[in-house]
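User: structure tokens for mannan endo-1,4-beta-mannosidase, please.
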Amino acid sequence: MKLYVIFFYFIYFFHHVKANVINDDFIKTKGIHFMLNESPFYANGFNAYWLMLIGSDPSQRHKVSSVLQDGASHGLTVGRTWAFSDAGYSPLQFSPGFYNENMFQGLDYAIHEAGKNGIKLILSLVNNYNDFGGKNQYVNWAKSQGQPLTSDDDFYTNSVVKGYFKNHIKAVVTRNNSISGIAYKDDPTIMAWELMNEPRCSSDLSGSTVQSWISEMASYTKSIDSNHLVEAGLEGFYGNSDTQKNPNFQVGTDFIANNQIPEIDFATVHSYPDQWLTGQDDEAQLNFLTNWLKVHIEDSQTILKKPIIFAEFGKTTKGPGFTPQQRDIIFNTVYSSIFSSAKGGGAAAGGLFWHILAEGMDSFKDGYEIILSESSSVSDIIIEQSKRLNKIRKMYARLKNIEKWKKARKLKD
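Assistant: Done. Predicted tokens:
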């Protein structure tokens, strides 16, 4: 009789866990792991920076829905997208504090559709680069108001510019979704706020300027939103103390110090050996990538003691002699490092490839695009990674539930 009861409970918990792969709760961290409903969460996902832009056009919204549905069917659990577009073409923010409601509704739609498909979103709040305005636009706004600024890096230190950016953080974080009626800060579909896409500061290579800025902005974001995680948007470059781990350049960030800020919940790394090691052959680039993955996972686990996501990676089709097999090797290398860490309970929590497109988006192609219906070999690799990470998640969830059942039985006996 007791064996029958144990078997019944095991089957119940197995099916209960299987039926709740993703549900509406906030992602949290516990040590080196992401947690969802007290079980580890893994972020196999994608970048789709264009979701807000395309979502703002009702005649094109089906592409947003299509990509999110297709991603979910491949087991993808996290998407990363822009929550910024400053001045210029189809802006979200016309000028400091003045917003384009049509664009905001595009972001509303993207978040709503992601939630329907069980996909969490990382929303990035400003760009390091001039694309979509970026820090340069903020500096220009302040200059037009008489601020004596001379460099884009004044973005990190000028009080007027920082005020503009804090106002933008508040406008996004406290936005009420026009479709769901839920404030962004209360929406568990959002996994995390990213302070900046790839922060860099060429005027201070030590990372100290960026360090102060991250600390201030992360603290401010947390002060108005206690539900969501915050990350800095770093590429993973080390500071002066660890230059041997970098490619042949520094960008003014420090992977260790910047991510040790208490308000930063997890580390991010980007991986583009085909851009960073131009002139070196595929073998050299692959060796660099393998080590890049290894040292960042180790440092996240032993020094930072926080989860790590490889938030951008890919292989351009525009490189000399490109073959799909070369791209498959890059994906397999990144995914294998993540899986190896995850199955051992390590800090690697997922990877987001750059970038996914729907069919008929030729103008968005940059060489790194993945259209799942047109990229059979890499799509198979993506599905397999989703399955492997989901098995780990279900294993931990079953163990947790069985342990709970055992404790309950002991109390009853």
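User: Anything notable?

Assistant: The chain is about 45% helix and 15% strand.
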